[in-house]
């Protein structure tokens, strides 16, 4: 999958043990070394997600019109018994007539009665319910803890293992992000390591309502369209996607569009035309990354799926529609102005590549915002810093020595040696010299 185009690996901490995740992390790092790829490890915390418990192997069939029960007092399903639910206060939060949606809304039930810790319901839309599938409550007011003990334990494990990004699922306000940032900051200082970046997963109406405040305190955003489509009318999801992508781009923060992008390839070797269009349109919306879930985690064709997605992304990025014409009046500050100037040079095909350094601040983020049709090579201090920058569109991190006055010449030689560019290529270098941002064109 790395050779096919995978830039990041999301580990879903709603499933699996710490030992299993540790083995996955080891495998990812080992495969990255073997292939020479830079691959970010993204730890997706469960958050206040409500799920069913352990179900029979192969799942439990639910039929339209069937009467079933849920229980908040058990963890595992027993033959003929109630369906276990992980949220222990569910019986306090639901009432008769309210819907309980299962497995991203593919199954629907309606509550008929609540008695003690048992919830009786009628199946409206059936299916096969498997272990640990999600449970959504679009009609209920839920009082679940926004950052659970499990999240804390998983976060501390992730810090020990050196994950690159931490995703806060079902975030509803900036408070959780600020809390987690304090935790990772303290842990990083104590161990002398680089703290992971923090990403907010937007998948509820509440998160959309507080999006500006959340965006201000996180480093990136993931748009979880599956759960979001259960919280708001599904026809609104594409508009929300475009809006949030644009807000992130203007804030110079990367965004990942996720969920059901090539869903049919979990079962079939070819994607549908609609799925291909979905991926392409996300790119043309100017998202930084697109993500696979079940297609690569448990699907039958993981490598073919990554190949298909990478191919669509390349084609969309090469099109004339993936061009950003930012009004000059909207450009704020010297770094943005210089980034815009370099992007114009790329658009007019006057340069073959762009190069900068993390020592120059957030210039790479500004450059990425304009989506120039040439690669942006970013000099990073270490592997961890390089992995954290893999989510920015068009940015190619390169670990190399920094800090000297002859950075453009040295980095040019490094890029040539690694085969990223040719010696005669025209490269625009944005570097930091004497505290000032400096633009150098190599090869003119």
Helix and strand layout, with pairings?
Blueprint: E1 8-12, H1 18-35, E2 40-44, E3 50-51, E4 60-62, E5 67-71, E6 83-84, H2 90-93, E7 99-102, E8 107-115, E9 118-125, E10 127-129, E11 134-136, H3 149-161, E12 165-168, H4 174-191, E13 197-202, H5 205-209, H6 211-217, E14 220-224, H7 225-231, H8 237-250, E15 255-258, H9 273-284, E16 289-290, H10 294-297, H11 302-317, H12 334-347, E17 353-357, H13 363-369, E18 376-380, H14 383-388, E19 395-399, H15 407-417, E20 427-433, E21 436-442
Helix pairs in contact: 4-6, 9-11, 12-13
What do you see in this structure?
Belongs to the pyruvate kinase family. This is Pyruvate kinase. It catalyses: pyruvate + ATP = phosphoenolpyruvate + ADP + H(+). This protein is of the alpha/beta class and about 450 residues long. It has 3 domains: about 10-50 and about 145-260, Alpha-Beta Barrel (TIM Barrel), CATH 3.20.20; about 50-135, PK beta-barrel domain-like (M1 Pyruvate Kinase, Domain 3, Beta Barrel), CATH 2.40.33; about 330-440, Pyruvate Kinase, Chain: A, domain 1, CATH 3.40.1380. About 35% of the residues lie in helices and about 20% in strands. Strands 1-2-12-13-14-15-16 form a 7-stranded parallel sheet. The chain has a 7-stranded mixed sheet with strand order 3-11-7-8-9-5-6, with helices on one face. Helix 14 (about 385-390) links the parallel strand 18 (about 375-380) and strand 19.
Give a brief outline of the structure.
By secondary structure, the protein is an alpha/beta fold. It is built from 15 helices and 21 strands.
């Amino acid at each position: 999958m790395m050779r096919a185009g995978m830039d990041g690996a999301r580990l879903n901490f709603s499933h699996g043990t710490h030992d299993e995740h540790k083995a996955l992390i080891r495998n990812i790092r080992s495969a990255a070394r073997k292939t020479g790829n830079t691959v970010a490890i993204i730890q997706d915390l469960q958050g206040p997600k409500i799920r069913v418990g352990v179900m029979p192997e192969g799942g439990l069939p639910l039929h339209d019109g069937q009467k079933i029960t849920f229980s908040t007092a058990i963890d595992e399903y027993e033959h003929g018994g109630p369906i276990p639910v992980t949220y222990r206060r569910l019986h306090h939060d639901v009432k008769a007539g309210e819907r309980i949606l299962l497995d991203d809304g593919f199954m629907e039930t309606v509550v008929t009665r609540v008695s003690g810790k048992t919830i009786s319901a009628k199946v409206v839309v059936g299916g096969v319910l498997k272990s640990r599938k999600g449970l959504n409550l679009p009609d209920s007011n839920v009082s679940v803890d926004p950052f659970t003990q499990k999240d804390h334990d998983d976060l501390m494990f992730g810090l020990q293992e050196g994950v690159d990004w931490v995703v806060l699922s079902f975030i509803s306000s900036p408070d959780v992000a600020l809390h987690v940032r304090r935790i990772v900051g303290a842990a990083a200082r104590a161990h002398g390591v680089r703290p992971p970046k923090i990403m907010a997963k937007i998948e509820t109406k509440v998160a959309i309502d507080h999006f500006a405040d959340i965006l201000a305190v996180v480093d990136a955003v993931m748009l979880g369209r599956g759960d979001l489509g259960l919280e708001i009318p599904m026809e609104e999801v594409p508009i929300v996607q475009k809006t949030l992508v644009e807000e992130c781009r203007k804030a110079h923060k990367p965004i990942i569009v996720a969920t059901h992008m090539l869903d049919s390839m979990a079962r079939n070797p070819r994607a549908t035309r609609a799925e291909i269009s979905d991926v392409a349109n996300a790119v043309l919306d100017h998202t930084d990354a697109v993500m696979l879930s079940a297609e690569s985690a448990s699907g039958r064709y993981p490598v073919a799926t990554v190949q298909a997605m990478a191919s669509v992304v390349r084609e969309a990025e090469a099109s004339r529609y993936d061009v950003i014409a930012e009004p000059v009046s909207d450009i704020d500050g010297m770094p943005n102005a210089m980034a815009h100037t370099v992007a114009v040079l790329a658009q007019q095909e006057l340069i073959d590549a762009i190069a900068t350094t993390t020592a120059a601040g957030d210039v790479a983020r500004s450059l990425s915002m304009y989506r120039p049709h040439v690669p942006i090579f970013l000099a990073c201090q270490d592997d961890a810093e390089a992995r954290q920058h893999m989510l920015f569109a068009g940015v190619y991190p390169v670990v190399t020595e920094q800090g000297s006055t002859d950075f453009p010449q040295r980095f040019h030689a490094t890029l040539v040696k690694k085969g990223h560019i040719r010696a005669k290529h025209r490269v625009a270098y944005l570097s930091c010299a004497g505290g000032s941002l400096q633009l150098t064109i190599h090869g003119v």
